[in-house]
Amino acid sequence: MASQPSTYTYSGSCHCRSVNFTFKFPMPLTSTLVTNCNCTLCTKNGTLNICRLKKDISIQGEEKLASYVRSDTGCVHLFCSGCGSSMFTTRDGDLEMYMNVRMVDDVDLEALRYRKHDGRSVQFWMNVEGRG
Ligand SMILES: [Zn+2]
């Protein structure tokens, strides 16, 4: 019987490929629940999020990221200044970062499982333990 790898490595980028990233995930992305948040910004941008510790995400081209800080939540949304792709969300001082799974290379959105998150009602959402 073939043994399963203990971590899975994924890569991704923005649309213009100025910003690239890699991260390890403890399971195949198809085995986790991706957060489909109904907050006003996720709705506008269409982001579908998974959560990792910042230290476990390697970003190349980080200087191309621009930020939009929500005045109501303090969340920092990072997007590519070249093509506008919405890539990451975090807050100053947080250990976690939320990644837009749409940016993962060759992602099959139809193959993923989702959980709804009521971000319009709840100030902040998920954590690494929740395997967001
Ligand atoms: Zn870009």
TrEMBL record:
Signal peptide residue numbers: none
Domain CENP-V/GFA: 10-123
Record flagged with keyword Zinc: yes
MF (Gene Ontology): carbon-sulfur lyase activity; metal ion binding
Keyword Heme in annotation: no
Keyword list, A-Z: Metal-binding, Zinc
Pfam families tied to this protein: GFA
Database matches in InterPro entries: CENP-V-like (IPR052355), CENP-V/GFA (IPR006913), Mss4-like_sf (IPR011057)
PROSITE patterns: CENP_V_GFA
Family note: Belongs to the Gfa family.
Protein name: Mss4-like protein
Lineage: Eukaryota, Fungi, Dikarya, Ascomycota, Pezizomycotina
